Each structure stands twice: as C-alpha cells, then as structure tokens.
C-alpha cells in the first residue's frame, strides 16, 4: 500500500480552496443535496455501514454514537464539533479547516440534519486566530448561499452554526470539559453518566465529534458507505490524515487508507533526515505509548496498533532520530501535561507534577534507579484513576520509554549528566 487517497486534502494546492466557489467547483455541497433526498435515519445508517470511527483519537464508531441519542427529549439536540486540537504532535484539523473549511461546514449540515439538530457549534482553539477568521468567512459564505439558516435549499430544514473560540486550555479537548467551556464555565471534565448523548450541552442530547470525523461525512453520503468501507482494513475502514513531523525529510499531511505502515509513509516522505536513523516515534501523538524501529511495519489501524502496545490516536506521527534524548523528550511532554492538568482530580494533578520534578532530576543526571520504580508506581496510581483521559495519556510516554529505553535512563545517572549534551553540541556546532 503505497498510494495516497487525497479526498479531504485533494484541493489543498488550489489558491482558492478555502472559498465557497473553489469548493463548489470541485463538487462541494452536492452531497448535501443528496442528503436532503434521504431520511435522517438513512444517513445515520449509512455512516454506520461505512465503518467510520472517530478521528479524534478514541476511534469510537461515529454512526453508533449518533444512534445513542434518545428518541425523545424535552430539550433541543445539539451537534458540537471538537476543533480544539491541542495534542502535542497533532496537526491535521488546523490545516484542514484552513485549506478546506467548507467540507467541514457541509459535514456539519448533513450530520445535524441526520441527528435532527437545529443548532451546531464549532469549538476552535483560541490561539489559531487565522483559522477562526477563515471559519467565520466560510460560515458567512454558507449563509449567503442558503446552505445555512432557514429552509436550507428549500428542504424545510433550519440550521444555525456558531463558531466559538476557546481560551487555550488543553483540557477542553475532553468532550465534557468542552461543553462546560461552551456554557461559560471553567473547562473541567464532568462526571459520567449522564453521557453527553443524554444530557450534554445545556442539558440537551448532544453529539460531539472531531473535525475530521464530520468532514468525512459528505464523501460517505456522496459516494456511498461501501465506497468508504472499501478502503482501510476490515475493522478500521476508510482513510485518514497521517501527520508526519520531526526528523523526517518531507514532513506534512499524508492522507492514506488506515492500515498503511510508517515504513510506507516514510518512503513517500523521503525517509529520516539524511545521515540519521529512526530511534523512536509516536503513532498517535504524545498521549500514546512510543514505538521504535521494530514497529515500522505495524499496520496503522486501531486494532494492529493496539495489539502492538500503543494506540492509533490522532495519527500524529512524531519522528525522532538517534540524536534525541528520550528522557528529555518525555520530560518536555510531562511538563506539558503538568501545565495543562485542570487540577480537578488528585491522581492527575499530583502525579503529573511529580513526573515533571523527577524527570527533570533524571535528565540532569541526578536521579537513581529507585526513581524509575517511583515513576512506574506514580503511573500505576494515575492510570485508570484519573477523572478523564488526560491522566492516562500522561502515563503513556513515561511507562513506554522506561520499558523500551531503561538503559538510557540509567546512563544519565551513572554518567551524572545527559549523555546527549556533548553530541548535541557537536551536531549543531555550538553549545547546548
């Protein structure tokens, strides 16, 4: 499998790809017209039949998620698009919204129609002001053309879309913390149950999906569920955007069927930067256990990556060559999680704080063998005991790095300093 499947990314190279005219020229909004000739339940079934699984990290079947909405409720239904992309290494939704915002808007209209919602929200990370402006422009264009608002395309269906800017909190990528933020409260995870499908935004039944999940809906409706299911693997169907970053010759977004391997992606990306070799990498961002060279041929689908000991996550492939200190990389990630922990629960709040302190001591060469056991003990006290997945995600790089690179940790405190400091100084032609 060495071919790409440019579907969401096919018009990114066009100068006007972000405009309504550019999107319509490439067949945009045709799927919406087809959707209005279908019953809402037909669309839900089509998404189920396609095998589309959430592209935000968890991989939960999208159509099944829609089906959890109660048949009746005294409160309105809502669709919320999680565009608060904040995971270290994850960089697919931001360029998607920047280059092709109308595919997301079309997906929002079709999805909202399918779940019988008349109000949808797109919650965007506040720092990406350029993306927010582009989304506002695209929404205005959609209203102007009659794709949003009252009686869309004469269908009798009404939908309003609100673009909401977050305030830069990683925790608001967690769906219930996102809902609290939307409602004007401090973004912190809610206790579940009740789940958002039953009592979500403003107490109403709510579907929360990732940008790429919703953006995939128009192609499923337009081409049929069998077309989507023909790509990928038996249980991980369809295509996805794989984000390659780090020590790779041509970093960027590679849209390919699920099940492709890192070796195949690296072949298309020109390989590891010249003169170096792969040391370790993340299959789904920093919240997933790290892989090494021996995992180059693991199919990048939910089942195969899970069986190999990690998670597919957001397909954020961070590539590190042999010049990288594993301890330093894990320290940087742990500093991020300690900073972004909302503090609501003790295991995450205290555990990530001690991760940061202990890894800083280990990276400087002042740690001990006992510190490694303490780190693993802290991990046991976080994993499965935190209020949300932030805590679990923070344990992934720590536990996996000690498992795969314990000798490198030991070298730090045996040598009394980071063994990569001198190498880094030589590599860059100067001091650290």
TrEMBL record:
Pfam families: Complex1_51K, NADH_4Fe-4S, SLBB. GO terms for biological process: cellular respiration. Residues 327-372 form the NADH-ubiquinone oxidoreductase 51kDa subunit iron-sulphur binding domain. It is an enzyme of class 7 (translocase). Its EC number is 7.1.1.-. InterPro entries: ComplexI_51kDa_subunit, NADH-UbQ_OxRdtase_51kDa_CS, NADH-UbQ_OxRdtase_suF, Nuo51_FMN-bd, Nuo51_FMN-bd_sf, Nuop51_4Fe4S-bd, Nuop51_4Fe4S-bd_sf, Soluble_ligand-bd. Gene3D superfamilies: 3.10.20.600, 6.10.250.1450, NADH-ubiquinone oxidoreductase 51kDa subunit, NADH-ubiquinone oxidoreductase 51kDa subunit, iron-sulphur binding domain. Its cofactor is FMN; [4Fe-4S] cluster. GO terms for molecular function: 4 iron, 4 sulfur cluster binding; FMN binding; metal ion binding; NAD binding; NADH dehydrogenase (ubiquinone) activity; NADH dehydrogenase activity; quinone binding. It comes from the Bacteria. The keyword 4Fe-4S applies. It catalyses: a quinone + NADH + 5 H(+)(in) = a quinol + NAD(+) + 4 H(+)(out). NDH-1 shuttles electrons from NADH, via FMN and iron-sulfur (Fe-S) centers, to quinones in the respiratory chain. This is NADH-quinone oxidoreductase subunit F.
């Amino acid at each position: 499998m060495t071919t790409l499947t440019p579907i969401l990314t096919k018009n990114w190279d066009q100068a006007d790809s972000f405009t309504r005219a550019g999107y319509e020229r490439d067949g945009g909004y045709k799927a919406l017209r087809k959707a209005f000739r279908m019953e809402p339940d037909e669309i839900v079934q089509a998404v189920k039949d396609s095998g589309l699984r959430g592209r935000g990290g968890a991989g939960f079947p999208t159509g099944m998620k829609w089906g959890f909405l109660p048949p009746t409720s005294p409160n309105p239904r809502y669709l919320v698009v999680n565009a608060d992309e904040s995971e270290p290494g994850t960089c697919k939704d931001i360029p998607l919204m920047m280059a092709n915002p109308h595919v997301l808007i079309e997906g929002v209209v079709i999805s909202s129609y399918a779940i019988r919602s008349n109000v949808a929200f797109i919650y965007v990370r506040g720092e990406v002001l350029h993306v927010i402006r582009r989304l506002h422009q695209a929404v205005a264009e959609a209203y102007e053309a009659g794709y949003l608002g009252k009686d869309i395309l004469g269908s009798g269906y009404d939908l309003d879309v609100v673009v909401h800017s977050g305030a830069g909190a990683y925790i608001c990528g967690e769906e219930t913390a996102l809902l609290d933020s939307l409602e004007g409260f401090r973004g912190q995870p809610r206790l579940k149950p009740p789940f958002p499908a039953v009592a979500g935004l403003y107490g109403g039944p709510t579907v929360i999906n990732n940008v790429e999940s919703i953006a995939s809906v128009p192609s499923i409706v337009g081409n049929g569920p069998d077309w989507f299911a023909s790509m990928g693997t038996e249980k991980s169907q369809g295509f996805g955007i794989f984000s390659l970053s780090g020590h790779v010759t041509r970093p960027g977004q590679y849209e390919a069927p699920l099940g492709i391997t890192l070796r195949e992606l690296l072949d298309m990306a020109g390989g590891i930067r010249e003169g170096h070799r792969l040391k370790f990498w993340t299959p789904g961002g920093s919240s997933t256990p790290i892989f090494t060279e021996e995992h180059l041929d693991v199919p990048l689908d939910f089942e195969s990556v899970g069986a190999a000991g990690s998670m597919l996550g957001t397909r954020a492939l961070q590539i590190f060559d042999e010049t990288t200190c594993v301890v330093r990389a894990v320290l940087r990630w742990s500093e991020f999680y300690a900073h972004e922990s909302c503090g609501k629960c003790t295991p995450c709040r205290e555990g990530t704080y001690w991760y940061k302190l202990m890894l800083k001591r280990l990276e400087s060469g002042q740690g001990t063998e006992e510190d490694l056991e303490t780190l693993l003990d802290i991990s046991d006290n976080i994993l499965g005991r935190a209020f949300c997945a932030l805590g679990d995600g923070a344990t992934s790089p720590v536990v996996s790095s000690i498992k795969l690179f314990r000798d490198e940790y030991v070298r730090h405190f045996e040598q009394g300093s980071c063994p990569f400091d001198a190498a880094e100084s030589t590599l860059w032609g100067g001091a650290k």
